[in-house]
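#onboarding

Welcome to the new folks! Below is a worked example of what a typical request in this channel looks like: someone posts a single protein sequence, and someone else replies with the predicted structure as tokens. Don't worry about understanding the tokens yet, we'll cover that in week two.

Example request:
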Amino acid sequence: MIYSNHYSELNNDFHIPVLSHKAIEYLINPSLKELIIIDGTTGGGGYSEKICKILQNSGKLICFDKDLNALAYAKKRLSVFQTQIEFINGNFGNLKEELNKSGIKKISGIVLDLGLSSYQLENEDGFSYQRNTPLDMRADKSDDQTAGDIINTWTRQELEKIFSEYGEIGNSERLAELIVQKRKIKKIDTTGELIELINSGYKLSSSGAYDFYSKIFQALRIAVNNELENLENVLDDSLDLLEVGGRIVVVSYHSLEDRIVKNFMRDNKATKKGNGRLKVLTKKPVIPEEEEIKINRRSRSAKLRAAEKIK
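Example response:
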């Protein structure tokens, strides 16, 4: 697989980790020894760097990412910790399978930052409506299906469903019909062509337009990368993989992800009458403080939830 070496020119803004201090505070259980920690969304290595400094060669960190550019950047950034890190180019939705390959049966913690990296938005094709690029959106470039494939080949009903369920767009039938009629005339290949199509069918204010574009791109990205299914898989796997006292921390950025995490923790919460296996550590989601939002505007929608396995 070929990937860009552009990471070598980047600074630490590859991805600004959101709620990083809180995430690590919840993630590391000081009562556990010989920790094995999973960073399921390594990105630029922001969380990983903080985790390694806490482990101080007394534990192991396993870094997952689907994006080879992210792993290449993280390897360079974290080279000083290379003896305690294993890098895996893989999907956290296949966590149990990937760990089995390494002979790992139990872990001490897993952290997931579900947001897009600055690198993806600013450099990779299809992720941002603010750049005119091919409609790709694949985090893992070895995957077959792109956003362009979805736009140009999925049925009207399938398009309606993803825009309604993943983008939470009202009257998604209108948008799906607009796409179907347009692609009969000409294939929709780029983000610019998609935005032009949307503008031709809707009268949007400046602020309303950005919100609408974001929802459409969110829906396509979720569909391309099977994001919600992968999240459900890793949450389910965590129940078996975490040792007693092990913790899971998830930072989500939109209501669909947060709802899945919230429901998972609620459904598996240990009670006096139930068989749940988790102690929920965050009664309400932790959100960024104003100072962090000023520094990183993309953090404004972040919500952190954490739980500890107790049996």
